[in-house]
Each structure stands twice: as structure tokens, then as C-alpha cells.
Amino acid sequence: MSYEKELAAAKKAVCLAARLSQAVQKSLLQSDVRSKSDKSPVTAADYGSQAVISHVLERELHPEPLYLVAEENAEDLQKNGAEEFLESITKLVNNALASDDSYANSSLSMEDVRKAIDHGRSQGGSSGRHWILDPVDGTRGFVKGEDYAVALALLVEGKVVLGVMACPKLENHKSSSSGCLFFATVGEGAYVQSLEGDSHPPQKVQVSNIENPEEATFVESSHKPIPIHSSIANKLGIKAPPLRIHSQVKYAALAQGDAEIYLRFTLKGYRESIWNHAAGAIITTEAGGVVCDADGNPLDFSRGKHLEHNTGIVVSTQKLMPRILKAVRESMEEEMLLSETQLKL
């Protein structure tokens, strides 16, 4: 099945949202960063990006109903004292929309923006069509002026069929410019083009062809180092320290061959949100990579807002994956034995 209309809408939405986020990052002050109820940071870019993407998808795909699974909601924007913040978000949204000729006369009110943000309350699942959005993936990096992504995917009957991801700080090898737009549709490969909308046509991307794991570069999140990552790297003979990158930019790095391995093991009890992986997973897979859990099973995006696997996420190339999964199994067994020994002491 062709998803040309959906891909065109998604690319337009993500490009406009990236434009908004870039404007915010340039002028962001620490006082502009707020905390959500779970203590994670949120900015006007998170809300504004979500509003832009929600509005553009709804308008471009009309009359098809929009079901959006997204990270943000407008709950905190309805509290006392939030009106000024919502007003600044609305201005950002309208400025971003006005930069596209087809939206030049589309001015949204504060209530319009709040409703657009709140459109992201779908629960996902195994039936129907659901868009999956992380409006600013990697907010911690974003507020420091570092890497982040705007990541959007389409889930159809429980399967991710399309992904679009803007990486405004990532170098575009194909056009020698800063800022990339990656996109992929199931069965059609993965592509990158400049975010600047220059004359360079989209170029196909492919994962690295390195066969020796000792030569591989591995990436992980920019948070605290994870001991099992080091154990796996040691078993593979990797000498170089890991690249620490915020957000789904890690998937983009693998898709265009800048790295070969992405490991993501988290603390016990942590549940991965689907918006943190959906777009990146299909882009890397369509670039020839493999995305699975630590047991080698594909990630299941059909269970609602969270992935239901119990182990880490492993991303690599088809050539390297068998040896990586062997190292993963050995490291997990050693970790389990160590825990049992400590319990007995």
C-alpha cells in the first residue's frame, strides 16, 4: 500500500515543527524551562511542536480522523498563571505556520493551540491508524543547545509503516549542511534530505557495512553510563568509548552509517514509551538495520503507549547482530549471577 499522501503531510508537519524548535533553542533561557509532574523538563518548543504537527496533520489529511499518541498534553497549560506561557506558545505556532505559503492565513487562537496539543491523547493499539509523536525528543539535550529530534511515525493495525524525523543539529553528509530530515516508508527504503529545503533531492541512506565488531562505534544515551553496556562492548572487543547522543538521533546515526551499534538498557521497572522509538526504528530498519529487544524479538508497538518487552533494546546491522546478541546474553547472565551472589551475602 502506498502512503504518499501521509508521507507528504508528515514531512510538512515535521519541517514546520523543526523550524519552531530551532527558533526556540536559539533564544532559550533557563527560566523558559518548566518541569512536568514527573519532574522531566518541558519547553514552549515541546508544546508548540506538538500543536503544529497536530494542526497540519488534521488539515492535510482531512476528512480522515486524526488519532495521535503524543508525549505532551495541555493539562499544565490550564492551570492558573499559565496563560502567558500559552500565549507565547501560540505566537510561536502562528509564526511557524506563517512560514509556509499554504498556511499563511491560518492564524490559531490560544484555545485552538490548546486543543491541538490535547489531540495527542490517543492510546494507540493494534487496530486502526495512529500517529505517534515525540515533539521534541531529547529535551534535556535541547535545553543545553545539543542534539534533539522531532519524531513522527504512523502505526497501521499495530505496525509502524512510516517514519519522519528531523535532526536539526545533525550534519547532513549528502548536502554538507547542518540539519537533516530522515524519512522512510515500509518496503521503500530510508532517505535523508536537508532541513533547509535546498535543491538537493532526497538521498537513500544505508547502514554501515563494517563486519568486525572491534571496529564498530556504539552509541548510548547521554545520561549516566550503564554498566552492562560496557560489559557488552568489552565482549565485542570495542576499544573506542561510546558516543553519547540525546534522543532518536542515535537511530539516525546508525541509519546513515555513522555508528554500528545502539544499546539501550534501562533501570528495572522503566517502561519505554513508543514515541521514543517508533520513527527511529522504521528509519533504521528501512536503511538495512535490525531493531530488536535483548532476546532478538522485534519491538511491538501495538500494545498501547508503552513497549511491553522486559529487556533492553539493541540496534545494529544484520552482519553484526548475531555476535551482539551473544554478547548481550552472556552479559545478562553474568549480571544475574552477580545479583544472586550479592543477595546471598
Polypeptide structure, described:
The chain is of the alpha+beta class. The protein has nine helices and 14 strands. A seven-stranded mixed sheet has the order 3-4-5-6-7-8-9, with helices on both faces. Strands 11-10-12-14-13 form a five-stranded mixed sheet, sandwiched between helices. Strands 1-2 form a two-stranded antiparallel sheet. Helix 1 packs antiparallel against helix 2 and helix 2 crosses helix 4. It is globular, with a radius of gyration of 20 Å. The mean pLDDT is 92.
List key phrases describing it.
alpha+beta; 21% strand; globular; five-stranded mixed sheet; 9 helices; 345 residues; seven-stranded mixed sheet
Q: Nutshell version of this structure?
A:
With 345 residues, the chain is an alpha+beta fold. The protein is built from nine helices and 14 strands.
